[in-house]
Design goal:
The complex is a heterodimer of chains A (117) and B (185). With 117 residues, chain A is an all-alpha fold. Chain A has one domain. Chain A is built from seven helices and no strands. In chain A, α4 packs antiparallel against α5 and α6 packs antiparallel against α7. Chain A is flat and about 45 Å long. Chain B has 185 residues and is an all-alpha fold. Chain B folds into two domains: 57 residues, no CATH class; 107 residues. Chain B contains eight helices and no strands. Chain B starts with a helix and ends with a helix. The chains are: A mainly alpha (117), B mainly alpha (185). At the A-B interface, α3, α6 and α7 of A face α5, α7 and α8 of B.
Amino acid sequence: MKLKLFLILSVFLTENKGFIHWLEHNLLTCPFKSYTGLDCPGCGIQRSFVALMKGDLVSSFKLYPATIPILGLLLFAAAHLKFDFKNGAFFIKMLYIGVTLIIVINYIFKIFTNQLI
Amino acid sequence: MSEEQFPGEEPKKNEQEGGLSPETNPESASLKNEGTTMPVEPSTTSQQGTGFPPNNGGFPPPPNNGGGFNNGGFGGMQQTLPNATIVLVLGILSILTCCCYGIIGLILGIVALVLSKKDRELYAANIGAYTESSFKNLNAGRVCAIIGLILNILYLLLCIVLVAMFGFAALSDQDAMREALQNMQ
């Protein structure tokens, strides 16, 4: 366990620049965006994740506000399935509703401020 | 459901004729029916069939306190529901795959809902046999799947509406699309 953690950390820390560089230049293209030129509700999450990996919280939030809550939700769900917290299911539900609200509000906001194109 | 409601209504009439209070459970109603002179009716048998869940529902209060002893006596633990984890994971993933025109998320959500329905029936069949936390997980996953399903359907509808409004040719041509959008405003 400790060895695994050490290996993962070492990969992230020693090849930090290389990994992010590779990630940044290998973004998956959104089929909706490549076909229509319009943003889909999930567009921006990869750029946002790369910004987060660089440690730039503000630009990560600006690119896609739901990235940090989504990561938190995934981590918490994994931890809950592993350790079985007392009210874990309830918190997962609430986090999920929050994430969906953020995504929907963000998309509507984008539509009304003409950031789609 | 409607078939079950009809036999459910008949005993009520019987109760009113017999002067029973409406709060008496279907068990006593079915007993009354057996006591009165129509034992062979299919409604009474179906009433007994529907009367079973309340019976099971009547037992579980002890299981919450003493059920542990019973299960401990068997030497077995309370099992987790078989699909609870899968339903939770699928429900969470159903919203993250909102790219690809909402189709992947739609499939995941439907699969999660079907699995959760099976497990809910399993849990309702014998409540004491499965852990409560796994049931909570299952319900959380179900809620997530429903929300994800709704959002994916909305997104799919949006795509269809866009195609219907502008057509494929304008959509695949970005400049024409931009002009069409600017004309709208």
